[in-house]
Every structure is written in C-alpha cells, then in structure tokens.
Amino acid sequence: MSNEATLAPRIVVGVDGSAPSKQALRWAVGQAKLTGAAVEAVFAWEYPTPWLGMVPPTDKESGDFEVHARRILDRAVDEALGPGPERAVALRPTSVHGQPAAVLLDVAAGAQLLVVGNRGRGGFREALLGSVGMHCVQHAPCPVVVIRGSGGGT
C-alpha cells in the first residue's frame, strides 16, 4: 500500500485575501465536508518588486514578509469561515514563498482537487480567468475547480 493511499484526501485552495478566494475557500470546505477531505488553504507570497535586481532582503526582512503573509492568510480564513478552531473539516493554512501558480501546482501534487477563485471584475472581464487560475487549469496534477465570484461580498 502506498503512502498516498493511507493519507486522507486533500483539497488545496488558493487564498490571497480577495473576495473570490474567500468564496473558493468556502466552497472547498463544503466539498471537504461531503468527501471527508482535509483543506489546505495556501497563500503564496513573493518579495515586493523593488527587491528584484537589488540587494536581497536580510533574514529579518524576509521573516517580516513571511509573518505579514501569514497574517493575511489567517485574516482571510477567519473572514471566510468565521473565527475559531471549531471548524467542520480539518483545515491547514499554509503560507509559502514563491510564484502563486507554481506554489499551488506544487502543493496540489497528490491532492483530490485544486480550487481557485476567478478574478473577473465585471462585464466581459468577469468571463475571463486570471493568469494564476489559467495556469493552474492548464497544468494542475489534479482536477481544478474555478469558483466564479458573485460580484460583491466578503
């Protein structure tokens, strides 16, 4: 029996603090309730653009970015699902340094599903999928669910 067969199924969801990502998280939790899966809420972060081509950040500055990323993720999870540890499914929030599409694809290896929100802003653009979502749809190692935003909300 392989290790994958003994692990509980996982649903990976990209969370960036936006309303569509919070909707995706809520949907992933609902699906996890139905399937008995755990949910991995993943926030991918990168250094701000000014660091590119310049002196890399110090260890302290690097830690500051990581702490800030984790705060954004924790706040988004609480806003989407309500505060508190008594949630209906196993939830593993994770912040990872790296390009968002690459991070999500890496974490989704072996997952049951990868869930992303769309970033459409209304009108024709609402029908479009953002670059991260499109990359995930085209390259994911598992099925991908794209949650369309309702146009407003959290």
UniProtKB/TrEMBL annotation:
Q: Where is the signal peptide?
A: none
Q: What is the lineage of its organism?
A: Bacteria, Bacillati, Actinomycetota, Actinomycetes, Kitasatosporales
The record places domain UspA at 10-148
Q: Which SUPFAM superfamilies match?
A: Adenine nucleotide alpha hydrolases-like
The record's comment on protein family reads: Belongs to the universal stress protein A family.
Q: What is this protein called?
A: Universal stress protein
Where does the source fall among the domains of life? Answer: Bacteria
The family database entries (Pfam families) matched by this protein are listed as: Usp
